[in-house]
Design goal:
The protein has 257 residues and is an alpha+beta fold. It has six helices and six strands. The strands form two sheets. It has a four-stranded antiparallel beta sheet with strand order 4-3-6-5. It has a two-stranded antiparallel sheet with strand order 1-2. The longest helix is centred in the first third of the chain and has 70 residues. It is rod-shaped and about 125 Å long. The two termini are 73 Å apart. The N terminus and C terminus are likely disordered.
């Protein structure tokens, strides 16, 4: 067990010195005073009276100094308590900052994996499916959901052009039925949350649907980036050049109202 070294404060030392001086005066008062004390020619104090008065005064002074000492000690205790409280707040903020930095580092790695893993654009429908699987796993990891649904909707006729449903490994879930009209009109589709693509100059809308109640701002930014990436891949794959090369045909699904 570590031995604690007690170091008295300046206030304690000062009080001890003053108390010793007063105590010495009280003890040696009978020795210092010999005979009656003449304050004025007519006012003379007897030795016992003067000694008792002086001792009483010194005793009162010692009590006042003790009260002052206690007051200062309490003030220092309050100050120490306040400092400890501020220290605890700073430590909590530091811990929160470290946790946020750790989460941020994970998110940065997640962003790198999103944009650096795919080294070439898909040229076939199977290639697009692999991209959907990859991005679906990223979304499930970001929002900690059990499944994710990517849906590409024709903005004009509100029909589903293409979609992908993926779930966490080892889990099976029934297909969620979400209205395309509600997504296009940006209506709430409880108990799900969804994020849609940004580009407004396209005839398609890409939606990412998840079984979560709330999405944080950071999660929204990452998923929005994934949706934009999916939009870009689909547009490139469905371009005139790849249509000629691969003869891709995307069958429309039934309208989901």
């Amino acid at each position: 067990m570590k031995k604690l070294n007690f170091r008295p404060s300046f206030l304690q030392i000062l009080y001890l010195i003053i108390f010793i001086i007063l105590f010495a005066f009280i003890i040696y008062t009978p020795t210092l005073i010999k005979g009656p004390v003449s304050l004025t020619p007519k006012f003379i104090l007897e030795e016992e009276t003067f000694e008792g008065s002086l001792i009483c005064i010194l005793f009162i002074i010692s009590i006042l100094i003790l009260n002052l000492y206690k007051r200062e000690v309490n003030r220092h205790k309050e100050l120490i308590t306040k400092i400890n409280g501020e220290k605890k707040k700073v430590e909590e903020r530091l811990t929160d900052s470290e946790q946020y930095i750790a989460v941020l580092n994970v998110q940065i790695q997640e962003i790198k994996s999103i944009f650096n893993t795919i080294d070439k654009y898909p040229e076939t429908k199977d290639g697009l499916k692999k991209a959907f699987n990859f991005f679906g796993d990223r979304v499930i990891g970001i929002v900690n959901s059990e499944w994710v649904l990517f849906r590409i909707i024709d903005s004009k006729n509100q029909r589903t052009v293409c979609e992908h449903f993926g779930s966490r490994k080892g889990l099976k879930h029934s297909y969620p039925h979400v209205s395309n009209k509600m997504i296009i009109e940006k209506e709430t589709v409880l108990p799900y949350s969804y994020i849609i693509s940004n580009p407004k100059n396209l005839n398609i809308l890409v939606a990412c649907i998840m079984p979560v109640d709330k999405i944080t701002n950071d999660q929204h930014v990452f998923i929005q980036a994934i949706i934009n990436e999916v939009t870009k891949l689909f547009v490139i794959l469905n371009s005139l050049y790849y249509k000629k090369e691969s003869n891709l045909v995307f069958e429309d699904y039934a309208v989901r109202k």
